[in-house]
Fold this protein.
Amino acid sequence: MNGTLNNNFIRKRLAILFIGMQICTGYSCSKNGSIENQSTPLSKVSLIPLPQSLQYGSSNLSLTKETTISRDIEGIPHELLKITLMQVLGSSSISNAANEEAFIRISKDNTLGDEGYRINIDESINLSYKTTEGLLWGIQTLRQILLQHSTTQNSLINIPKLIISDTPKKTWRGFHIDLARHMFNLSYLKKIADVLSFYKINKLQLHLTDDQGWRIEVKKYPMLTMQGGWREFDEYDKRCIELSNSDIDFTIDSRFIRNNSEYGGYYTQEEMKDFITYATKRGIDVIPEIDMPGHFSAAIKVFPELSCTGQAGWGKEFSYPICAGRMESYAFIKNILDEISALFPSEYIHIGADEVEMDNWKKCERCQGLIQEKNLKDVNGLKNYFVEQIATYAKSKGKTVMAWDDAYIGNNPQDLLYTYWRDWLPDEPGEITQKGYPLIFMEWGHFYLSATPSDDLLKSLYQFNLEPKFQGILKNKFLGYQACVWTEMIPNERKFGQHTFPSLQAFAELAWGSDRNWSNFTERLPWHLQWLTQNGIHSRTPGFIK
Ligand code: ACM
Ligand code: ZN
């Protein structure tokens, strides 16, 4: 429902309410601990992402401290709802009740979409769902409604009576964080997971390795993190330090600095397991990315024999890649994939494959030898061979393998899930899907939240449409969108928040497939920025809100 429709609808509803108020005055008590309140203005809510359908009723529902939650709502959804109600009602506890008796009830409805839900707020609150995901998203919507209650002069907590029917248009609503350039504590990433879940984002890709650092423990190769997790301040660190003299937002988080000259740190497998459990319970699938054969310097510095030249280094544009002609390289990577596949229960694993500098491969005897032996023609063929070997191994571990679209070779494509980012190849996503391969869209001009944030960028992300630039993308192979934050110039939580919010709210609405209306969005946004602040998350305040 767009803003105009919504407003017309509300105006009509207000008129009906006004007529109603001439007839009935005061409050009447209803069952289940609510007090029906018919003499105060209608409450309204600012939901993000906007549900597919929202119809306001003609009065408010007032909540009391006797509000009960169905015992059939379990686990984290129950906890989230309970904490929210305690906060809203100023109550130190909320009771449970049998589903039929409870004020907030649930019911299974197999006619709904897989992640769909329906909320009916009338004399009580009913939430219908088909799957556990649908139930969770319904609870998150309900939390937004409850948190946006109005309080009357005589302290009644009002929410609007309404019917919401909602389901996402796309199954993949992803977010990606680069933890290699600058990293964040898992306690902060848990807060980010809370926010992602609040906005129904259901995938989180962690970019765990790159030239600038190796961030995940691999038990077989402890030096990957002990040594590869650290770097002498690089050019970005130095730039951040320089800028921080006049802008504290560029201050590097001191928890990741040692000896005043090195940046680093890593996550143990136990810590990551704990984070994955936390995020999974909030509906988020945590996907690891181990970037290869390029962007691999953190490992090559520790094991220099992995590169063609026997040392880490930099080519014309990108870092020296792994030597793809050396069989030990494959064994090394497979050992890493064994541990990463076991650690991350996700169906997905991302193997990078972006920005591979292939000059070394042209000069390397072993690489050239393998090209001849396997009849691969040239270094592009070698890259494709490398990707195929690694993908086949990851698949043998039951994974669906993801790679950046750099891995797509038109005349010999690999069966991968492609994350498309290179907007200078606008025909590629259409071609990938037409050849039968699935695609996640994260084109850098709109979905890279690491760009200096502005109101214009926010608006263009919110209003993004595939066409006319990206044509021919087959719907059934287009899984959805993903936004990403690359952290070269994002060295602390404050800066991360400024880049991520409110872009993430705009993204959530696009990714969910809501009817989008910019001016309506700008009206709904302020409450959400306040909510972030209350929860200790930084954001950028757009010019239209100041
Ligand atoms: C990328 O931005 N190199 C995927
Ligand atoms: Zn080589």
